[in-house]
Amino acid sequence: MSEAGWLVQPAVFPWAALVIGLCIGSFLNVVIHRLPKMLEREWRAECAELAGQPAPQPHDSPPYNLITPRSACPGCGHRISALENVPIVSWLVLRGKCSACSARISAKYPLVEALAGLGAAYAAWRFGPTGSALAAMLFIWFTIALAFIDHETGLLPDSLTLPLVWLGVLANLAGAFVPLPDAVLGAVAGYLSLWLVYWAFKLLTGKEGMGYGDFKMNAAAGAFLGWKMLPLVILLSSVVGLAFGALQMFAARGKWDAGFRFHFGPYLALAGLIAMFWGEAIVRWYLQRI
Q1: Which residue from 25, 184, 223, 224 has the fewest beta carbons nearer than 10 Å?
Q2: Phi and psi at residue 72, in whole multiples of 5°?
C-alpha cells in the first residue's frame, strides 16, 4: 500500500488530519494577524489615488503579505526560527514568552492551532476519508480565521467569505452535505435573510446593525449546509451573540450601553459548526417535542 493510502486508513486518518490541522492553524495565525493589515494598506493606497495623491511606491515599503516577511516578535523584532514555530509545543516550551526579549506571546496562537487541529481530527473521524471530511475541514479553517479577525477588527474580509461561498457550492456538486439545489438556495437565502434584517433595522432606527460581511458569511453557511439549516444557524448565532454581547456590555460599563456594538462573525462561525456536525440531531430533538 502506498504512503498516501496509509494516511486515509480509518484508524490513521484522524491523526493525520490532526497534524495537518495543527500546521494549518499555525498559518491561520499569520492570516489573522496580517490580512487586516494588508487590507488597510490597500485601502490607504486607494484613498490616496481617489484624493489625487501619489500612491505609495513598492520601493517605499518592504513587501508585506502572507509569506513575506518572516514571522518575528513584535516587541524586539526577533525572527521566529523553525524550532520556535512548532504548533502548540513551541509555545509551551517557551512558556508563552519570546526567547529573545521575554515578551509575552498571546495564548491566542496555540488556541487557534488547537482549534484547527482538533476540528480537522473530528471532521476526519466523523466523515471518514471522504470529500465531506475535506470540505468540513476547509469550513472549519475558514471560519476560525473569520471569527478571530472579526473579533479583533470588526472585519469579515471578502477574500475569505466569498471563496468560502464558492467552496460550499463546489463541495455540494457531489452532495458532500446536501444536494446542489439546496446549496445554491442556501447561499441565496443566507445572504438575503440577513440583508433584509439589516435594512429593516436601518429603516426603523437609522443605524446599521451589522455589516455586509455577515451576509456573506451566512451565505457561506447556507452554501455548505443548505437552506434548511439556516433557521438553526441564525437562531443559534443570535441567541449566543446576544448572551455574550450582554455580558461584554455589563463587564465593560457596569450598565446597559445602547451604543455598544458586538461583532456577529464569531457567533455565526460557532453556529455554523454546530449545525454542520449536530444540526440534524438538534432539529430532530426539537421536532419530537413539538
Answers
A1: 184
A2: -145, 160
